[in-house]
Structures are given as structure tokens and as C-alpha cells.
Amino acid sequence: MSITENQIDIHHWTPGSRAEPSVRIGVILASDGCGKIEMVLQGGPCVIGGNGVASEPMKAGTAIQIERSPEGLLLRIADGVIGPADRLRIDPQEQTDSAPGVGILVRDVVAGRGFHWQKKADQTLQGSVEFFATPSGIVMVNELPLEDYLVGVITAEMGSACPVEFLKAQCVVARSWLLAMTEPKHDDEPFDRCNDDCCQRYQGTGDMSQSAIDAVRGTRGLVLIDPNNKVLDANYAKSCGGISELPEHVWGEPKPGISAIVDAPTDDPVQQFMPVTEDNLDEFLDGDWLDKTRAFCSTHIVPVKTISKYLGRVDEVDDYFRWTVNYTRAELESLLRANLPEATGLGELRDLRVTSRGVSGRASKVELRWIDQTGSEAVHTLDSEYRIREVLHQGFLYSSAFALRIARDDSGAIETVTLRGAGWGHGAGLCQIGALGMGLTGHDVDAICQHYYPDAELQAVYP
Length: 463
Ligand SMILES: [Zn+2]
Ligand SMILES: [Zn+2]
Prior knowledge:
Layout: H1 3-6, E1 8-9, E2 21-28, E3 36-41, E4 46-50, E5 53-54, E6 63-69, E7 72-77, E8 80-85, E9 87-92, E10 104-111, E11 119-125, E12 128-134, E13 137-145, H2 146-157, H3 164-180, E14 193-194, H4 210-217, E15 222-225, E16 236-237, H5 247-251, H6 281-286, H7 304-311, E17 322-328, H8 329-339, E18 346-357, E19 363-372, E20 377-382, H9 385-391, E21 402-408, E22 414-422, E23 430-431, H10 432-440, H11 445-452, E24 457-460
Parallel strand pairs: 1-2, 2-14, 16-23
Antiparallel strand pairs: 2-13, 3-6, 3-10, 4-5, 4-9, 6-7, 7-8, 9-12, 10-11, 12-13, 15-24, 17-22, 18-19, 19-20, 21-22
Helix pairs in contact: 2-3, 2-4, 3-4, 3-10, 3-11
The protein binds zinc ion (2 copies).
């Protein structure tokens, strides 16, 4: 029995289906330019199919090679060649329970595409695999039940030291995001999601952590339902900075089920800053209250040095809750010339100010004024938090929740610009470091979901 015979795919799934869907994950992508794939069957017997192709069951231990030839895909096993075909598929003959090391071993799969830590590693995949011939090589897709996929995601994204209630909250969010399917990222490709940070990191199920298995099993089928009775496309970000942001200040429109919350117990001093405005911003960023706060994402609850042990790779800074970026005027000018097409002729930066903010202090509009190289004045507005973070930093600014502190000389010319900021990410929905802080201080999955999504409801959509 192959997986497709008894499972609904995620595109045809609705809460009324009351059944676990399967998902299709792009494991080797067209952009990888892969011409040959080496595999070993490690589970039970498998059958090969594809366009007009069918095989006898193959035993565990069988080595398989798939190659992109000019005529199409060729599958080589010890005693022969199958193909050419433009699509091939390998299905396990029986569905087996998740277990580490069971499945199809694939050699040299790319992880971390485009990042400095990009590498190739062997991966073990449960469920079925499918291969497509493309002009640049082979696309490989792993089709498997959603819950098994989630074990792989939680293992890849989260350290095994994480408190299990935090992992459960991550499962609920990841499951909701998948089932909501509101973000079409790979519409023209033969899979739903890729295996990288572009979607969610997934490196197969070869080394599943026990805590990931426990968290997924402990929340089976559990999702967030928005007030319109739809599965919530549950946004999350690394650190809110004390107050989370409304979707309208991030993406320009509200989202049912996502509101802004204060990320702290009800008697915490950070409560006084909701909403953050120009008037209380400096106190929010630097006040004495920071010594006393028990905000869940503050360093009092989650010390910075411990974060990488829970959340995997993080950038090396002292503090995500509060941070500082300094520029000389010349540095900021060259940054603007490089990052902003409208500013290539920028001569002298005269002013920059935040003209619109959300409730967490995140800027959604920044106005820039400069004199261009011909001597005339120019004005430009960065009009989204994303654009602000992209333009005002060489990499990507941690967040747009910052105060601009500008030092000028006697003539009024800018000397330096300091960005004093809070948080990491867009800040809407669940705050990951805060949810970790809640898990570390004894809150369970219900409390964590209730806290970050007070307008949504937890519901099991399949048994
Ligand atoms: Zn993707
Ligand atoms: Zn937070």
C-alpha cells in the first residue's frame, strides 16, 4: 500500500477531512543543478514506478542510482537499468512507523542554500520519493505524512535541550502554517514546500530527537483556528522585544486571529508601554524597568548565551532584546547608495526620521532627506518594516523597532546616527525566544498558544 492511496494531499485537505494529509517536500531543487543521485534502501521493500515504469519489489540494502541523461531519468540497480522516463517514483510497500534510520538513504543533499554554512550531507527520508527531469538536472521530492514531516522539522530547527512544552507550541505553529497553505512559495514546482529556511528546515528523519517525537505525538492534529473558523496562518518571529506587533503594521493588512500582546506576566513593568509611541519609546528602549522585567523574551528569562543551545544557529550579538547599531554619516550614505536605487546619486544625507510606527515600536515608514550630487534636495520614504530593515543595514537589521539618535555638528550636518533597537524579526504572532522563556518557566503548550494567539483557539483537526 503506498502512501498516496490512503492519504489526502495537503491541497485537497480541509478541516472537514478529519484525516492527516501528506505533504510533498522539495529535497533536491532545480537550482541545485544535481545530475546524479545515489541512494540505499534502508527500510522495508520498495517498488519503483513512474511513466509506464513498474518494478518488482526491491529489498532493503539495495543501492540505487538515478541519473539525468539527455533522454530523461535513468534508474540503475545492480541488475539493470530502468528508463529513460521524465518522472520516477519509489514507494515503500508498507507504511512503517517513524523510527530513526528507517527509510531511503540519500547521499549528498544540499542544506543551507545560499548561507555561509551551506553543506552537503546524507539524509534518510521516510515515505515515498519522486524524481523529475528538469533542464538543469533532477528535482527530488519526498512525500510523507504530515506528522512524520513535523518530527523532521522540529529535530532540524530546535535543539534537543528545549523544554518539551515549547517544542509542542512550535509543532502547533508549524502544523498550522502548513495546513493554512496561504503562502504559495513553490507554485510552479512539483512540491508544496522546500527543505530549507525559505520554507522550514527539514533534513529528513535520519536522526529524529526523542523530544521532537514526543512533542509531535503529544500535539497530533492540533492547530490554531482563527475567529473565522479557518486554520490560522500562524506567524512567528525570533524576539518581539517586549511587545508583539500587529500584522497591519508589518504586511499592511490585519489578519484574523493575530493581535498584539505584551510578552510578560500581567504585573510586569513592560505593560505600561503598550502601545509604544514616540513619547515612551526612549523609556521603552533604555529605562530602569529593564533591570526588573520578567518579560518572557528578556535576557532575565532566556540568557543570550543559552539561546543557540535551544534555537540552533543564531547570530553572535550580546542581546536581541535590546541592541545598538552605530553609523558615521559616511557609512550610512554609502549604505543608502548601495541598497536604495533611488539614492545612487546621493550627495549628503540631511535627515532621517520615523514617520509611522506600530504598537511594538516597529517603524513602518522612514523618511529620508538628502542633497543629491547636482545640489538639489531629494525625499524618499521606506514604506515597510521589511524594506527599512533591508536598506538600513548591510545584512538585515534585527528589527525596525528602533529609535534614531542623530548627532549633528554646529552647522547642523549629521555626524553620526545611532539605531537603538528592540527585538529580532517582524514581531507578529508567536515570539520564539519568549515562547522558549515560557517553556523554561513552567508554562504548557495551551498557555503558550493562548498567550501569543489570544483570539485563536486550539483544536485537533484529525485524530
Ligand atoms: Zn521554500
Ligand atoms: Zn517576546
